[in-house]
Each structure stands twice: as C-alpha cells, then as structure tokens.
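Predict the holo structure. Ligand: guanosine-5'-triphosphate.
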Amino acid sequence: MSEHATSPVGLPSVILIGVDLGDDHFDSALEELGLLAQTAGYAVAERVTCKRRAPDPALFVGSGKAEEIRLLAQSTGANEVLFDQSLSPAQQRNLERLLGMPVNDRTLLILEIFAQRARSHEGKLQVELARLQYLSTRLVRRWSHLERQSGGIGMRGGPGETQIELDRRMIGESIKRTKERLVKLKKQRATQRRRRERQDSFTISLVGYTNAGKSSLFNSLVKARAYAADQLFATLDTTTRQLYLGDAGRTVSLSDTVGFIRDLPHGLVAAFAATLQEATEADLLLHVVDASNPACLEQIASVLSVLREIGADQVPQVLIFNKLDVMDPATAPRALVDVMELEGQSVPRLFVSAHDGTGLPALRALLAERVLARDAPGDPDAPGESPGIEDVLP
Ligand SMILES: Nc1nc2c(ncn2[C@@H]2O[C@H](COP(=O)(O)OP(=O)(O)OP(=O)(O)O)[C@@H](O)[C@H]2O)c(=O)[nH]1
Ligand SMILES: [Mg+2]
C-alpha cells in the first residue's frame, strides 16, 4: 500500500465516513469514530456522511459518493479511509482499489487500538486471537506478520496449495496455538480465584462503557493510580485492589475492567472472556455511566448486551452515574440516590463525581450494606435482593 504521508502534526490522516441507513444509533457527527481514530493515533482530515436506504453491495456507498471521497482524499492528502459501519471483504477490497489507499472499518479500528494497548501477556494473546479470527474471515492481504512469526520454512504445503489455502492454514494454526496458551492462563486465573474464594472475599467489578470513568472511580475509591485518560479503551487489563469499608469493618476486592463499546467486535468479546470472567463471578457489579454524555442511555443498553453475552447479567448491579460535576444542570438529578428502571428491573442508582468526590461516601455506605447483608446468614431480608437503599440517602 501507499507510503504513509503525514499530517502537519506528524500523524497519518484519515477521512471518516458514516452512512445513515436509518437505524437509531447513527452518529451524525461521527464523534465516537473520531475518538476511536484519535485514540489509534490518527488525525482526522475530514468527516463525510451520507444517507442510503441500503448499502451498495460493491462499494457500500454509491459510486458518485465514492468518487467524491477519492477527490477529497486527494485534496486533503489523507492516507486512509475509515468507515463507521462494517464493510464486507469485497466492499473493502473494491474501495481500496478505487481509492488507492487502505480502507478500514470501525471493527478493525477497535482491534487496532486493543493491539496497541494490550500490556499483559494475557491481554496480548486475547487481542491476537481476536485479530486472527477477524483475519480468517477476510483473506488475505494482511498476513505478513504471521509469516514472520512462523518463520515460513516448513510451512509450505504440497504442490498446488494456493496462497490462500496456505494463508488459511497458517491462520488456523496460529489460532490454535493462541487458544492453547490462553487455556493455560485461564487455569492460572482459576487457581488465583479459588484462593480468593477460600479467603471468603467479597468481589466487586467496575464495568461500563469506555471512557465512563471506571478507572477514575477505582482510583478515588482505593487511592490507587490506575491509568485513566480521555481516550477510548485506556484500560485493557483487569486490575484488582483491596478496598477497606469502615462501615462493614472488612475489606472487599474491587476490580477495574476493560470498557465496553457498542457493537464490540464479536471476536473481541469472546477473546476477552477470560479477563471479563472477573465480572461474571463478582458478587456485585458497579455499572459506571458517563452521565454527562447525551448518548448515555444507549451506552447503558450496549453494556447490558455485552453483560448478557458474557453471562454476567444475573450478577446484582448498581448504576453509578458519574461525572455529576459536568452534568448539564437542566438534567441534574433531584436526589443523589434513586432507582432506575432497567429492562423491567429496578436498579439502585447513585450519582457521583470521581473527580470531586461527591457521592462517594454514599457509595461506600451502599457497598458496606451489601457486604453485611451477604455476611449475615439466616437473615430473612438478606442477601442480594434490594437491601433498602433509603438507608444510604444523604
Ligand atoms: N468531569 C469529570 N471527568 C471525569 C470524571 N471521572 C472521569 N472523568 C474523565 O473521563 C475520562 C475517562 O476516564 P477513565 O477513568 O479513564 O474512564 P474509563 O471508564 O476507565 O475508560 P476506559 O478504560 O477507556 O474504558 C478521563 O479524562 C477522566 O479524567 C468525573 O467525575 N468528572
Ligand atoms: Mg479505564
């Protein structure tokens, strides 16, 4: 592909494309895609949106629009085009041919960010697995790193094996190897978890949409320094710390986890199942929401759907509406603690600010109450259900 020319600030520059197909979550400002692009290290040269009743089978957009994009890419000196929607392998290939530059979609961008971000051995393996699975569905121009990895020699099949079959086989073998290594790590994790269970710990996981403020909240609760940043997917590895709850007279373990995003690539959810296992087996989920984001209700729905996918939807949940300090005054809550109807269930909700600490005492009180309820065997009102949250009203 073409050399990466660079934008004035030295970053490769991209044109973002969004096609309004009439579904409810079309983002006309392409805001999230822009944030994803920035997080991945691109400068956004231009945003283009258009409306269609259905995607064009060959190019996703119409041929007139594609030509417009080509001219725009020329005039802005862009190096790459990113689509907000998923492209089929054929659409991607046709567009690349027509535009003469790499064309990618949101899924690949998310995979790219995960690949850049993964730090732990397990995180890297999980991303690698998700990438391989993505690659195996769209053969096969991006296989060079696999060839390097396997050394090439000895990999050749019998005569007549085509390049594509060879690629497919290499990817298949890499997937198998990666899976085996992950299984080993999963066993180690299970051992660690059993050790914790023996110690009768109460475990709490912070979950939520990416950038909601999970790490910031984690830091203010346990006075740790997990990486928090105005980027998507700042956190990829689960971090666990002990949190002392004075009111309960004991410690609990609190985990900060990877953020969710709408239409999280399926392979990634599967690949991160081991990391997200913490959430599945937690005693309580703190579902952190960026209450200042106008799209926060949709984000909640996306998180609930991922929780269902990883089998964590039965774990008791508390909604933590964060960023109270920057909430639009017009939508400011009347009480800091209330109950929200969520898919037919009443879920306790607390408004907090991880930045200025508002609402954190109420949150600690609620956590202590939950722990005590679980620790009190034979109490007819305990545990789990909804221990009266009136008790923690400020
Ligand atoms: N104003 C305000 N900003 C906040 C608050 N909490 C977090 N932020 C900001 O929101 C951004 C995201 O915070 P993080 O704690 O990294 O969010 P996260 O949910 O861990 O994000 P990922 O790890 O990327 O999924 C950062 O720029 C924080 O400074 C808050 O209470 N008020
Ligand atoms: Mg984080």
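The mean pLDDT is 82. The longest helix spans residues 163-198.
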